[in-house]
Amino acid sequence: MRIALLVLEDGSRFYGQSIGVHGESVGEIVFSTSITGYQEIITDPSYARQIVVFTYPHIGNVGINKFDNESARIQVAGLVIRNLTIISSNFRSVLSLSDYLIQHNIVGISNIDTRQLTRLIRKKGIQRACITTFDRLDMQLAVRKTCEYSIDCQSNLAYEVSTSHKYIWNQGTNYSSMQCKHDTSVIFSRKFFYNVVVYDFGIKYNIMRILVDYGCLLTVVPANTQAQEVIDMDPDGIFLSNGPGNPNEYIEIVSVIKIFLLKTNIPIFGICLGHQLLALALGAKIIKMKFGHHGSNHPVKDLEINKVLITTQNHNFVVDMMTLPNIFQVTHISLFDGTLQGIKCLNKPVFGFQGHPEASPGPHDSVFIFNYFIELIKNYLSYNSARE
User: Fold this and answer.
1) Number of helical H runs and strand E runs in the chain
2) Domain CATH for 50
3) Whether 201 and 309 share a structural domain
4) 46 a known binding residue?
5) Looking at the whole model, is its pTM more than 0.85?
6) Please, which residues bridge with residue 311 across strands?
7) By the 8 A CB rule, do 363 and 326 touch?
8) Quick one: CA torsion of 204, 205, 211, 217, rounded to 10 degrees?
9) pLDDT tens digit string along 29-65?
10) Among 108-112, 179-183, 374-378, whose mean pLDDT is lowest?
11) Which residue positions does the secretion signal occupy (predicted)?
């Protein structure tokens, strides 16, 4: 057993047991309250360069399978857990979590008091942190490296995790149990009725699968794709994906979205980072949260249908509701802290949702939001057809 050390920028330290590879990792530290879905979480590009703490005490109990990745690799900078289960038991499991971390060169630490650590982050806010497993655990050196880590390193993360080339995605879900949670008015098939351009800022696989389930053939484009290139594709809809980093830094992407809003009436749907970028393009402001929302048990109120949805969340930034222009309508709010969770534009077929309605991991309460995107696309196509 190799001893590991976790150090925060305020000098707090936690000694535990090394999991994954031996070495060192530095990044922002956040906590996730999800009980299930650790595989989806650590492969979610929205967590790029972040050290994730799981508040649920037992992690690794169902191993790793071939189906639940949300990207091609592990995205987190490091992993912090209370207890790594000895036995992985699931009929789909092909690998243990420990071996998976080693396979992807990820440093982690277990056997620490994650409750104490979570309370510390809640009290002091998101901090920089360092995990080290070197034979000589030099706390002062770890603190120095932690404080030297620049948050500016995260300013271009959406470009880093984005695809480098345009490609077509036509794979839907294969889980009938998931499909039955969708709106029953939608026919699930592999027939494609709508051509949708997807901006990849760090998109999760399951978002694309569900869009395909709703009849969308996806053309996925890099984060730096210019507006005219997309307009020339003549899409039926534009999707702005989730992703990592500070949305205020993505000035060029916001400029591209502004062009769509000014020059076209193409329906636009933004999730998470995409939702925030959309709000910026329409004149709202973004603020950083103290410790963010990360987990699969966040209650959100849908103001239009007066219903509470339990949602998956993963964000450190939020749209400042007080800066929303009059062309916006607030559609969803968090019941944890009252922060903005959903918006729609009153004069354009444009809307955004802060949570992750594709529910990977998490409950399927909000997956019907995809259906609203389809309805906007149908109306857009009908209008264009009538004009012709």
Assistant:
1) 11, 19
2) 3.50.30.20
3) yes
4) yes
5) yes
6) 298
7) no
8) 120
9) 999 999 999 999 999 999 999 999 999 999 999 999 9
10) 179-183
11) none
Clarify whether 272 is annotated catalytic.
yes
- 314 among annotated binding-site residues: yes
Please list, in sequence order, all residues whose beta carbon lies within 8 angstroms of the beta carbon of residue 386, skipping any fewer than 6 positions away: none
| Share above pLDDT 70 across residues of the chain, in percent, rounded to a whole number | 94
For residue range 116-139, what is the model confidence (pLDDT) as tens digits? 999 999 999 999 999 999 877 777
* 3-class secondary-structure state, position 344: strand
Among residues 154, 173, 196, the one where a domain terminates is: 154
Token digits of residue 288: 């950083």
Any known ligand binding at 154?
no
Bridge partners, residue 19, by sequence: 108
Q: Are residues 171 and 106 in the same domain?
A: no
| Catalytic residue of the set 272, 294, 315, 332 | 272
The three-state secondary structure class of 388 is: coil
Angstrom distances, CA of residue 52 to CA of 154, 241, 343: 15, 21, 28
In this structure, are 340 and 208 located in the same domain? yes
CA 257, chain centre distance (Å): 20
pLDDT at 187: 40
Instruction: Name residue 27's amino acid.
Output: G
Say whether both 266 and 145 belong to one domain: no
**Are 204 and 250 contained in the same domain?**
yes
Q: Where does a domain end: 91, 121, 154?
A: 154
**Active-site residue identified among 9, 28, 40, 358:** 358
Q: Is 215 marked as binding a ligand?
A: no
Owning domain of residue 25: 3-154
Report whether 218 contacts 253 (CB < 8 A). Answer: no
- Tokens representing 30 are 């956040």
Two tokens at 378?
């149908």
Is position 226 annotated in a ligand binding site? no
358 is catalytic: yes
- Identify whether the C-beta of residue 60 lies closer than 8 Å to the C-beta of residue 181: no
Domain tally, the chain: 2
Neighbours of 156 (CB within 10 A): 15
Mean pLDDT of 54-80: 96
SS3 128: strand
Is 130 one of the annotated active-site residues of the chain?
A: no
